[in-house]
Amino acid sequence: MGTTQLESVPEPKYWHLKTVLSEALDSEFSVGEILPNERDLAARFGVARATLRQALEQLELEGRLQRRRGVGTTVAPPRMGVSLGTGPHTWPGGPEDAWQPVDCTAAVPPAAVAEALETGPEESVHIVRRSRVSHGRPVAAELLYIPQSSVPELSGIDAPSGAARARAVLRELQRLDQERQENAVELGSAGADDAKELDRLPGAPVLVVTTRFVAAGRVAALSVATYRADTCRLTFGDAGGVEIHAGPERRAS
């Protein structure tokens, strides 16, 4: 990183510094590399440490940097593309699925979920919990609600609990002929459970993607997936594998 003069720049110093730092991240640093400490960076750019912190905070908010306790500030991986295309749909747990099953329980879902699934108010459903990791960091957590009527052949003997039970439920779900998927996206804030699972503070911005899987004219499963807003980007279209570029060469998806 070289020194640059910021005195004559009309925009806020920290904003221009953010741009300069962003260009340096693209040209001089690799993913996971640790940045010099704040004192050295401030001296190199001729700014106050308060100005530098503002620029670093903005880059962290945009997902370009990660601050890790005991490690320092590192260059973050590119944002993960979350495809909401209209191409061929598959059930959760298929060969191309990047989610990892964590566990599976049977419980009465929240009222809004029960209404969407058209189950009785006291009817328990299978709740599969899954996680998604990118470059070694958690980026998303999912609760997948599946009525027992969607997997009537499920055996409790082969997979009584845990991740094995989750995989068994998903295997049975894939026996159904899926008609379509219906997606809804909204911006939210992380609750206590999501924040812990995603390694964020409660209240951190998240993207909540709700997907209804329809088979035989009814909702066979409902997914509520919570993504870290600083690590993910929604993509639209039929192509699922969208390459995400960070920095000046970033292309709109």
UniProtKB/TrEMBL annotation:
CDD domains: WHTH_GntR (cd07377). Transmembrane segments: none annotated. PROSITE patterns: HTH_GNTR. SUPFAM superfamilies: Chorismate lyase-like, Winged helix' DNA-binding domain. Keywords: DNA-binding, Transcription, Transcription regulation. InterPro entries: Bact_HTH_transcr_reg, Chorismate_lyase_/UTRA_dom_sf, Tscrpt_reg_HTH_GntR, UTRA, WH-like_DNA-bd_sf, WH_DNA-bd_sf. The keyword Transcription applies. This is GntR family transcriptional regulator. It comes from Streptomyces coeruleofuscus.
